[in-house]
Specification:
The chain is about 80% helix and about 0% strand. It is mainly α and about 425 residues long. It has one domain. Helix 10 crosses helix 21 and helix 19 runs antiparallel to helix 21. The longest helix has 27 residues. The termini are far apart.
Length: about 425
């Protein structure tokens, strides 16, 4: 088939798949894999190229972290942490939600979002069970917080790593330029969450008293396994923080940590692998190929170039256009291939945009791309990897986060984030 036919056919296949994912009439993993295989059957993609488009770093990282979480869960760490957290807020569910949001956001700044939600989600599920309330609002706000917090640093979200490498920006560059809008967005989210749920989430006085009476000290019975697990977990965290220094991919650190912990705890791999979220992983594989089809047929690049041309090489207009198109497209497609597509475009048009201006470089365009690509992940349930992982964990535990229900939370906070980011970029760089 010709390039023109591939162009339109890839759009058609993606849209049909997306409609079915939104409708939730068919399991999203089946839809994604079916759409992916059709992309290959009609030769928009060839098999070898499809395999290349799958981000195996993400897949293997997820497997490694799922294995680690499954092992440490058996020791009782999550139960202990759940009780300590609940007692800290005296059993108040709204305060608990806000506290967990900030914990998630802070951790996400130093670890990738997926790892963060894999660690925090089990705590949420346990706490909600103890308080006899639905965990869905807690899980959704956790997703939002992980994507917001991950935006603030070089290592918090994969798009930032790509941008940092392409533009030669350091960890401190990201922190200095992005911490203020991220803190502002989190603060507004906290207020909104409080106002929405202060009268909706209730826990009886009797149940609060029961929670406060829990003795967490007797939960963890094997201290040797505890310290082995914490040691490996610390090793993995440090490895994530320093992976750029030693040039080891995060997936390698996670898999090494998981394998070493299996050896130290004498765990049977068959049982551990049975608890891995395979449906989530295969959904990712299908989604990577679906989006890869759009990338391969030139759709993503076409859209990006057309919209950027609307700016007329005006640096301010260009900044705002990049911000908002990044937010919109990152809510629909995976932000990693989008950022990969945008990087050479920005490198090409950036020098032209700063001609005859006060700017010595076009760094502001990179910040617009980072804010848009990372924050846009909150727009839909499939906008970011963390979203899909949490939805999978919830479903496994008997709770379904629907596509539409997530939109009720995700779209408003994404709009707020977009507005705050736009004003921030204007006042910091153009005012």
């Amino acid at each position: 088939m010709g390039p023109a036919l591939n162009f339109y056919l890839s759009i058609f296949i993606f849209l049909i798949a997306y409609i079915f994912i939104i409708s939730e009439k068919i399991n999203r993993m089946i839809v994604a894999l079916l759409g992916a295989t059709i992309m290959i059957f009609v030769k928009i993609l060839f098999s070898d190229k499809a395999l290349e488009l799958i981000d195996w770093n993400v897949i293997l990282l997820l497997i490694g972290m799922m294995l680690i979480v499954n092992m440490i869960k058996k020791i009782g760490i999550f139960e202990w942490l759940a009780i300590k957290t609940a007692k800290l807020v005296k059993g108040n569910p709204v305060y608990l939600m806000i506290l967990l949001m900030w914990i998630t956001a802070i951790i996400s700044a130093f670890l990738d979002n997926v790892t963060t939600v894999l660690l925090i989600a089990p705590v949420i599920l346990l706490l909600s069970a103890q308080m006899k309330i639905t965990p869905i609002p807690f899980l959704i706000t956790q997703i939002l917080a992980s994507n917001i917090g991950g935006t603030s640093t070089l290592i918090g979200d994969p798009p930032n790593i790509l941008i940092g490498s392409a533009a030669n920006l350091s960890f401190m560059d990201f922190l200095a330029n992005l911490i203020l809008p991220i803190f502002s967005i989190m603060s507004i989210l906290s207020v909104v969450i409080y106002l929405i749920f202060k009268n909706k989430l209730k826990v009886s006085k009797e149940l609060r008293a029961e929670i406060m009476s829990y003795d967490e000290r007797g939960i963890i019975t094997d201290n040797v396994k505890l310290w082995k697990s914490l040691g490996i977990l610390a090793f993995v965290f440090i490895g994530f923080l320093l992976h750029n220094l030693f040039h080891y991919e995060p997936y390698l650190i996670a898999l090494f940590g998981a394998t070493l912990l299996m050896f130290l705890l004498k765990e049977e791999p068959e049982h551990l692998f049975a608890d891995v979220e395979w449906t989530t992983l295969f959904f990712f594989i299908g989604l990577f190929i679906l989006v890869g089809g759009l990338q391969e047929s030139g759709v993503i690049k076409f859209v990006a170039e057309k919209i950027i041309k609307l700016s007329g090489n005006n640096i301010f207009i260009l900044t705002i256009v990049i911000l908002f198109i990044s937010i919109v497209l990152s809510a629909i497609v995976d932000n990693i291939p989008f950022v990969i597509t945008m990087i050479p475009i920005i490198k090409q048009i950036g020098p032209q945009a700063i001609e005859n201006t006060k700017f010595s470089n076009f760094e502001v365009l990179w910040w617009a791309l980072a804010l848009g690509a990372c924050l846009g992940g909150n727009g839909t349930l499939i906008g970011a990897s963390a979203n899909v992982v949490v939805a999978g964990l919830a479903e496994k535990n008997g709770y379904k986060i629907s596509f539409v229900e997530f939109l009720k939370y995700g779209v408003p906070i994404t709009i707020v984030a977009a507005v705050i980011s736009g004003f921030y970029l204007y006042f910091k760089y153009f005012f």
